[in-house]
Predict the 3D structure of the following.
Amino acid sequence: MDSKHIEQTFSEVSKTTGWAVDKRISLAVTNIYLGRGQKFDARLHTEAVNVIKKNEGWTSPLRSHLLHVAAAFMVLKEESIESSLKLVNQNQQALNDAGFWKTSYTYLAALLMKNLEEAERARALYEEMKKHHKFLTSNEDIPYAALLGGREGALEERAATMNMYYKDLREHGFSMGNDLQWLSQIMTFESPVYSPGMVGKVLAIQKFFKDEKIKIKYAQYPTLGFLAVTGVGGNGLNEIVSNTRELESNKIFRWYKDMAFSTAVQQTMADNIKGQDIVDMAFSTSLEALMQAQQAAMMVSINAAIISTTNNSST
């Protein structure tokens, strides 16, 4: 990991997104590009932003909360920006038709979906998840339902396994809530079949960071799942620790130390994924997309809160 490269890219992204955009969003966008090993191109990013603004109505989350995150995802797709935006809207409509309300999270799911058929399976998995966690399962789970619903295996079993992982981790001191639910969902990425070994991996990674005095906040629970599923070993975990410390001392992360950890994880995972067999590439790309979606979902919440606060203070 090259912290100077991160700093330089963040500076270019911030300049492009403008002063009105929260720095954490600029960091999330920086991670989307660097996580995919892509150089940030201000011209292409601005072009994507302009295409979204030209084609989306004022009420569309794509032109407010999700604007720069969506632009980054679209720039990285193989299709043209226009075609990519059209596909996002088709996916979004398919999710609406499947029974989801239109929100920032359906748009986020639409950015990640490969085809329209995934919408029905996403809805079916979402309903199965609700059977176990009626009040906990909400709009924020839709991107996970979309990506996990498209994977092989019985939806009922996947949802039941999520619930078992959730209960197991609760017994080991994890706090209940959305963050733990997301972690339990990610743990089923590789297989819908329950595996005590997967629980063991998550606990071992948590203990490793604790021993290294790196505090895992609730919002970072899902990160433990990404590391467990990707199979990041001891060397990778040591790298994350040293990179986190290096980034924490960087002026960008002075106010957002928790994002130093997330950034270090994303960079290490990207390196880990590059080293895998070509057979695993589809698996890895989906996992990477899911991790970036999780980061983006956090940014959506932050951005929505900022916009709400700004609107309230100006009335």
